[in-house]
Amino acid sequence: MAAEQDPEARAAARPLLTDLYQATMALGYWRAGRARDAAEFELFFRRCPFGGAFALAAGLRDCVRFLRAFRLRDADVQFLASVLPPDTDPAFFEHLRALDCSEVTVRALPEGSLAFPGVPLLQVSGPLLVVQLLETPLLCLVSYASLVATNAARLRLIAGPEKRLLEMGLRRAQGPDGGLTASTYSYLGGFDSSSNVLAGQLRGVPVAGTLAHSFVTSFSGSEVPPDPMLAPAAGEGPGVDLAAKAQVWLEQVCAHLGLGVQEPHPGERAAFVAYALAFPRAFQGLLDTYSVWRSGLPNFLAVALALGELGYRAVGVRLDSGDLLQQAQEIRKVFRAAAAQFQVPWLESVLIVVSNNIDEEALARLAQEGSEVNVIGIGTSVVTCPQQPSLGGVYKLNALFLQLVAVGGQPRMKLTEDPEKQTLPGSKAAFRLLGSDGSPLMDMLQLAEEPVPQAGQELRVWPPGAQEPCTVRPAQVEPLLRLCLQQGQLCEPLPSLAESRALAQLSLSRLSPEHRRLRSPAQYQVVLSERLQALVNSLCAGQSP
Amino acid sequence: MAAEQDPEARAAARPLLTDLYQATMALGYWRAGRARDAAEFELFFRRCPFGGAFALAAGLRDCVRFLRAFRLRDADVQFLASVLPPDTDPAFFEHLRALDCSEVTVRALPEGSLAFPGVPLLQVSGPLLVVQLLETPLLCLVSYASLVATNAARLRLIAGPEKRLLEMGLRRAQGPDGGLTASTYSYLGGFDSSSNVLAGQLRGVPVAGTLAHSFVTSFSGSEVPPDPMLAPAAGEGPGVDLAAKAQVWLEQVCAHLGLGVQEPHPGERAAFVAYALAFPRAFQGLLDTYSVWRSGLPNFLAVALALGELGYRAVGVRLDSGDLLQQAQEIRKVFRAAAAQFQVPWLESVLIVVSNNIDEEALARLAQEGSEVNVIGIGTSVVTCPQQPSLGGVYKLNALFLQLVAVGGQPRMKLTEDPEKQTLPGSKAAFRLLGSDGSPLMDMLQLAEEPVPQAGQELRVWPPGAQEPCTVRPAQVEPLLRLCLQQGQLCEPLPSLAESRALAQLSLSRLSPEHRRLRSPAQYQVVLSERLQALVNSLCAGQSP
Q: Is A34 in contact with B223 (Cβ distance < 8 A)?
């Protein structure tokens, strides 16, 4: 992997990429003498996206990179000074100038892990002022990355393991970095490759691409290439004028297909020849610029057969309009017939690549049993996540932690009148309880100081809203949050993007079929330990009206 | 405006931020001896977003910045070499190394202009290879910028001119740059400010923000600020212990509201006091952390009245949950009664700020006649454009232009079998035909070589799909595309973001009410000149099956 050579890649993720209220609150904390109070925040989401029952955690590498480089420059501090009250104590700005993440500790769900509502993706602790400032950039780096990885994983589940999925949504993304993030994390979620070259260069994502309609329409047929000759694949023997050779094949192909030899567009054929001269070992035709049946397909076959004579095998055709499944079936038939007719068996298995606004529903059709489609390019619907374009991640102060540690005061929950926005108290640990086949049964949150649950042991746990605890005896127990940064220092090398991708695929394969469904009425359960539930009860009782 | 001081802002928009097929086609063109052929592309969209009848053009400044800096670095060329065939002629890579936009010319719709389907936002001409490579980055920079500006303009139309709109969607954006783009262009589209500090620093967007629930929950009430004293606003006289003063006011407020003095949360009050100490001239309370009526509102009033005694005026309250309109009405009543009771008339007009997943429908309710809401914060629904998360912009080779200029060959349209994907031939000019009141009647596309239409002159034009031309006599004619870059040189300074914002507001105000509607059955017409229509007809006739 050629990843992360370039520190500039995430230049935009820097300290001032934050909401102004983080800076105004920073001043508030500082003025109250609390800038250095110990605090802990948890980043999590409240509902799985897209009506499904799972999400994938992603974005951690970007967070770590951001945190390690976190430092306000002079220009940043000056800008903040220009938007804060003019009589702000200069000592506050000195405090900001000295700020870094050397006292920040982060526990995190590894990238590619399954993530469920309420289970922290990140636990961030450190001085109150600095961990507050981190809220917006961390949410920005985690939320979309996790959303698009989850979206990609759903598309992978629909496509099945055999179809190749190509992400090609850069032009539909929210600007340059949206595109880079989308390409990176759709690969993590299960896509095979991306059209985005920068994602290849900076993140090691495999890149793919061939030609567009503009390439085809740019040729009229009267162009004369400076060097029309192509040497045989084996490197021996004289070169051949590929265009002339294709013209000869065209007559045979048209006779075979029952077409007039003047019907296929000469410009399209010239474009295919030009492409084949540049990519003799990777020739692919885009068939639908003029007419698939009367032009694209015969021109492709003529050039492919001419290449074949020189020992090269064409690799694929692409369709970008019309009924993609139906056309793929018919094109495969034509390939089979032509393979027999011209005695070139490899032609049968030329890849059929399709694209054109493919969403989950269209993908399901293209991936059905018997489909002759091999590669599916998806842009808008992977990148923009149109079914739910944001994850709605939150970053919540662990108020109890703060008060117990810092002040020894009365523990209090944020018991707002909006029950949707309630937050669990206390510094927590999280465990995944697994069955004997390794499939996840439920996630359990408990207080950090409780003993780690043991495999084989019966546990009493509280499902959300339950009146009674239930019991579970997990065959295996997995701690979910790994110590990632300790006092600003990286604790262990982070897995590569490809490793995280493998973890995602493995994790998804172990998830029960009902939780893998795209619209799942059966939500995966996140339960509380008895002690955590008791704490919630006591706080609610203490504060209810 | 403090804009554009920082060249790093769009570091991610660089030459390799492109689809791989642009690079493979580049090699194809080069191998065919056509790298330097003159070519022209047009960037446009085919349908107005969100079911409306207008869009705003945006993203041009980013494009110009990108084009002027366009240059492949050694590492970029090496990366391309690693993904192209190993036997590619090294002269191709030398060609890439020397590439820049010094021969590229761009005409464009100014940012903030109204844009309609089929009318180019950009016309890009120059050597075929380089203008092909520009496709993806230009689409990436223009499409989302225009989409979010249009979305913001719709929200502004719903909100009316009086309500202040704050964009606060950074955490919901597609990564860092998605957030920066969203903040910049929602301002262009008509928002008043953004929470995104970086958009303030780099783009001069006014920034706003105060405090979040975490600030409130971080206080238990037992904290002791190092300096609890606040000097009077006038700067004369002794300082006062603000917390103590607020406590005194709390008793009066609770008596007035009929609450027990122990009901309001002491931590919330401590948070308000801390914030007021830092921002005595800009105090704002977030009311719904615990209970608006039993805690947030009395605590706010106590601190606001204490500040008032020192000559400071609180500026606002914020609500982030529940029925925002209803609460705003009731809070305003409380403010009026308290203003009378405590003889502080300014309290009546304290701003009421609301937020919480506000979409177009919720906004319409909040903006209705008689609403007491003053400021509306919108995040997800402005940034993610959930009704249509991508514009679907396209960048089409002007095939006729290319062939006439470069080869003198047969003009041909891309006459695909998918009528949705047909493209108009020829290098075009575009004009907006206006009525005597300055309102746009229709846009007209014609061939570049046709004479400019004159105001007051009767024109015969072809609406899309019409069997007959119709006539129009515009009172004014506006050329739409301005020469922006000529042979890589900037032709005139680009307007500032604030100027583009003003243009957008002016343009929208002149649009007819039916075209300003959010769901408009009446699409704004884009018509063809007689000569352009004749060219289309002749090409279609020449190529139809």
A: yes
